[in-house]
Amino acid sequence: MIKISRRQFVTTTAFGASVSVGNRFAQSAGPDDMFDFAKPLGGWETISGKWTVEDVPGASRNGRALVQRATDNEYNVIVAPGGPYRNVGVSVRFKPISGQEDASGGVVVRLSEGRYYVVRANALEDNFRFYYYDRARHMLASTNVAAPALGEWHKLQIMATGDRFQAWLNDRELIDHRDDRFAAGRIGLWTKADSVAAFDALTVQSFDAG
């Protein structure tokens, strides 16, 4: 396994770009590592929801971002090309746009056969949470934090290495939890209920050997 410090992971994935040296994130990200939402969504798989590329103020690449607009599903999930991954770091910018029941955005890791982990932030709740999903959602870890503001961009990151999961919101590490029920899978993006949210600057880096 390639080892990377928590500080290195956070500082080298800001806005989906590598900014320092000494680890995998410092290398130039290849086309399988960085997703450009200014281009068509080739290879993406929609599990549920209405996911479209749109003009979104503040988006980092030509003003285009991935937006989820369905408001009548329990959960909305889209799966990125690539994988499966066991040891992986994922970073994304997200903007909660609207929602009355929920206004959340999340990152899915180790998705396989309908099961996955997800870390999510919610603009309507003062918490940051980590779940697993297996026909229903089950909370694994939660911490109190000021809710990310509606209409503003925020950074969400998760690193999965073995049975350890670490997650950050706006560069603050808030989750450090161990769970071994799902070993590997693909990564994706997530919203809940009537959340309308935009996603930008998605960066995925595998730490798997070979």
In short:
The chain has 210 residues and is mainly β. It has 1 helix and 15 strands, in the order αβββββββββββββββ.
Core attributes:
210 residues; mainly beta; Jelly Rolls; 8-stranded antiparallel beta sheet; 7-stranded antiparallel beta sheet; 15 strands; globular
Architecture blueprint of SSEs:
Elements: H1 6-11, E1 34-35, E2 45-48, E3 51-55, E4 64-68, E5 75-79, E6 88-98, E7 104-112, E8 115-122, E9 127-133, E10 137-144, E11 154-161, E12 164-169, E13 172-178, E14 186-192, E15 196-206
Antiparallel strand pairs: 1-15, 2-5, 3-4, 4-15, 5-14, 6-11, 6-15, 7-8, 7-14, 8-9, 9-10, 11-12, 12-13
Q: Distance between the terminal alpha carbons, to the nearest Å? A: 10 Å
Radius of gyration: 15 Å
Give the CATH topology: Jelly Rolls
Q: What is the CATH-assigned architecture? A: Sandwich
Q: Number of folding domains?
A: 1
Tally the beta strands: 15
Structural class: mainly beta
